[in-house]
Structure formats: C-alpha cells, structure tokens
Amino acid sequence: MIDHRTAPYAALLLRVSLGIMFIAHGLMKVFLFTLPGTAQFFEKVGFPGWTAYPVTTLEIVGGLLLVAGVYSRVVAAAMIPVLIGAAMVHVGNGWVFSAPNGGWEYPVFLIVIAAVVALLGDGAYAL
C-alpha cells in the first residue's frame, strides 16, 4: 500500500537524484572529455559524432528541469532514448558496470528510474 503522506517526498528524492545524475554526466562530457572528445567517442561506438552535442545539452538542461521539478514527466520520458543509446553502447560488455568499458546494468537501471519518474510525476517541491 502506498503511503500518501510520504510518497511525494519519495518522488522528490527520485526526481532530484535522476536530475543530478544527468547534470553530472553532461558536465563530465563538457569539462572532462570535452565536446569534441565526446563526439569522437560517439563516432567510435557507432553514433554520429554530432549527436554528442544535443545529448550533452539534453543531459544538462533535462537534469536542471528535473531538479527544479519542471515538466518532470515529459523530461524523464524524453531522456529514455538517450539512456537506451547509452545501454546499447555497454550491452556487449556484460552485466557489471565496473567491467572494462562498463556494463549495461547502470544505464538500464536509469531507464527504469526515468520511467518511474515519468509515471509518478513531480512529487513535492516542484515548480
């Protein structure tokens, strides 16, 4: 049974955590790998290099929107294709994300979390 007193806070925690994760991954592409470096990586794994730019923008802007609680359902659903792309990159590496080149369980887990946020909604303290 869902506790309706605490469910909005659970949704808040899930939404903000997902948003922070997206922001961190987007900023990592900008500041650690650089956008040209990220574009080269995307090409290496079979995606067009130019897609690194919109993906990075989506991660940062989408993450900020999730943290703020703005259109959380739409943003979380819109991020699922990005996460599917990330899972496709890692699927051949096996289960464990600590395996060489990372495994697929982390991106797949994030797909589930994004789907839950899309279904659940904003929760508490959303704009």
Describe this structure in words.
- The structure is a single chain.
- The chain is mainly alpha-helical.
- The protein has helices at 7-32, 35-44, 52-68, 72-90, 105-120.
**What structural class do helix, strand and pairing data support?**
mainly alpha
Q: Cα-atom Rg, whole angstroms? A: 15 Å
Shape: globular
Average pLDDT rating: 96
The largest sheet is:
none
- Work out the oligomeric state of the chains in this entry: single chain
N to C succession of SSEs: HHHHH
Helical content, roughly? Answer: 55-70%
What key phrases describe this protein's structure?
single chain; 127 residues; mainly alpha
Give a quick rundown of the structure.
By secondary structure, this protein is mainly α. It starts with 6 loop residues before the first helix and ends in a 7-residue tail after the last helix. Helix 1 runs antiparallel to helix 3.
